UniProtKB/TrEMBL annotation:
It comes from Aurantiacibacter rhizosphaerae. GO terms for biological process: glycerol metabolic process; lipid metabolic process. Pfam families: GDPD. Belongs to the glycerophosphoryl diester phosphodiesterase family. Its EC number is 3.1.4.46. CDD domains: GDPD_ScGlpQ1_like. GO terms for molecular function: glycerophosphodiester phosphodiesterase activity. It catalyses: a sn-glycero-3-phosphodiester + H2O = an alcohol + sn-glycerol 3-phosphate + H(+). Residues 342-361 are annotated as: Disordered. This is glycerophosphodiester phosphodiesterase. GO terms for cellular component: periplasmic space. The keyword Repeat does not apply. Keywords: Glycerol metabolism, Hydrolase, Signal.
C-alpha cells in the first residue's frame, strides 16, 4: 500500500486531533505549531528511556514520546538506545554478569559490552538505569540506580494512564533498532512491534503513532503489515545498514524523497540535513513536502555540546545555549516536528490548558 496519499496532512491532522487551541493567536499556540517529540523521554532532565523520563516529558507537554526498542533473549521489547547497555545501565558493576561481556559486529561496527539479547527480561530487570552523558548532564546522574529498564508494555500502560489523567491524546514514536541484525539472530522485531501495537489498539492511518527506522526494507515490510504512519530516519551522512549501496545523501534528493514516499509517510532527518551552516533551510523540507512527506528533525538539545557554534553560550559543553533560536530556524525551514531532549522548552507552560484532545480510547 503506497503511503503518498497521506501526504503532509498526516502530521498536521494528528496534531490537530490532540491540540485544540484556546486562541489561534495566543503565544502558547504559536509555540505549539510543530509537533514536540520527546527524544527518549525528557532525557535532558532524567536518564533516558526510563518511565520517569517518559512521564516527565508528558507532564512537560510533549505531543509524542520516542521509544527506542530492542529485544531481550526471551523476545520482549524493551526501551534502550542500543542493545549494548554498558553506557545506560549498571551492568558493568554487576559481577554476576561479568562473564557475559562480549564483542559483536552490529551494522558493520564492532562493539564490546553487554547486550540485551543475552539477558532474559527477568535478568534485565535486576539492572538499574544510568545517565548516558554524565559529563554533560551531571544532575541526571543523581538519578542513577533508581529506575529499571522499561518494557514497551509498561510504557503503553503509562501513556494510557496519563491520557486518562490529562484528557489528551499522547502519541508514541517507536524506533525499531537494528532490525536486520536482530532478524539474523532470530528476533523478528518488526512482527513483535506490529503485534503489540495492534493488540494495544494502535491501528489505522490516524493512530497516534509513528514507527521509525534507519533501515529501508523493514519499513517496506511494515508498509505491508500496518496502516500506522511510518518514518524513514536519515543520518547526516553514510549509508543504510541493510543496503550499503543506498546512501543517506541520495535519500534527501528529490528522487530519493519520491522513492521514500512509496512506502513511508515522512522522514526523520538529522538537523544538518535541514539547515545549512547559516541556519537557513537547505530545501530538504520543501522537497519532502512536495513528495507528500512530513518532516521531523532530530535532535534539538539545550546544551552547548549539541548546538551549532553560533548558538553556544560559552565553551562549557554542559552549559545551556540558545535552543530557542535553533527551534526558530527549524520552524522557518518548514519542519513539521522536532525531536528534543527538552520538551519543556518547546511546549506551552500549561499544556493541559490548551491541549484538550479526546481522552484515551
Amino acid at each position: 500500500m503506497a503511503k503518498t496519499d497521506l501526504a503532509r496532512g498526516v502530521c498536521f491532522a494528528l496534531f490537530l486531533s490532540i491540540t485544540t487551541l484556546c486562541c489561534a493567536t495566543s503565544v502558547a499556540a504559536q509555540e505549539s505549531e510543530i509537533l514536540v517529540i520527546a527524544h527518549r523521554g525528557a532525557s535532558g532532565d532524567r536518564p533516558e528511556h526510563t518511565l520517569a523520563a517518559y512521564e516527565l516529558a508528558i507532564e512537560q507537554g510533549a505531543d509524542f514520546i520516542e521509544i527506542d526498542l530492542v529485544p531481550t533473549q526471551d523476545g520482549v521489547l524493551v526501551a534502550r538506545h542500543e542493545n549494548e547497555i554498558s553506557g545506560t545501565t549498571d551492568v558493568g558493576e554487576r559481577p554476576e554478569f561479568a562473564a557475559r561481556l562480549t564483542t559483536r559486529t552490529i551494522d558493520g561496527q564492532e562493539m564490546t559490552g553487554w547486550f540485551t539479547e543475552d539477558f532474559t527480561l527477568a535478568e534485565l530487570r535486576t539492572l538499574r538505569a544510568t545517565e548516558r552523558l554524565p559529563d554533560i548532564r551531571p544532575k541526571n546522574a543523581l538519578f542513577d540506580g533508581l529506575y529499571q529498564v522499561p518494557t514497551l508494555t509498561e510504557i503503553i500502560t503509562l501513556v494510557r494512564a496519563k491520557e486518562a489523567e490529562t484528557g489528551r491524546v499522547i502519541g508514541i514514536y517507536p524506533e525499531i533498532k537494528h532490525p536486520s541484525y536482530f532478524a539474523s539472530i532470530g528476533h523478528d522485531v518488526v512482527a513483535l512491534l506490529v503485534e503489540q501495537l495492534h493488540a494495544a489498539g494502535y491501528v489505522g492511518e490516524g493512530g497516534p503513532v509513528f514507527i521509525q527506522s534507519f533501515e529501508v526494507e523493514p519499513l517496506k515490510r511494515l508498509n505491508r503489515m500496518t496502516d500506522l504512519p511510518l518514518v524513514q530516519l536519515i543520518e547526516a551522512d553514510g549509508v543504510t545498514a541493510d543496503d550499503p549501496s543506498r546512501s543517506y545523501d541520495e535519500m534527501v534528493s528529490p528522487s530519493g524523497l519520491a522513492a521514500i514516499a512509496e512506502y513511508a509517510d515522512g522522514i526523520g532527518a538529522a538537523i544538518p540535513l535541514l539547515l545549512n551552516e547559516t541556519g537557513a533551510s537547505t530545501g530538504v523540507s520543501k522537497n519532502a513536502h512536495a513528495a507528500g512527506l512530513v518532516v521531523h528533525g532530530w535532535s534539538a538539545r539545550k546544551e552547548n555540546a549539541f548546538l551549532p557554534q553560533v548558538l553556544r553560550s560559552s565553551d562549557d559543553d554542559a552549559e545551556a545555549g540558545d535552543l530557542s533560536a535553533l527551534i526558530a530556524m527549524l520552524k522557518s525551514a518548514g519542519v513539521d516536528g522536532v525531536f528534543t531532549d527538552d520538551p519543556a522548552k518547546l511546549s506551552p507552560a500549561d499544556p493541559g490548558a490548551i491541549k484538550q484532545g479526546d481522552a484515551a480510547p
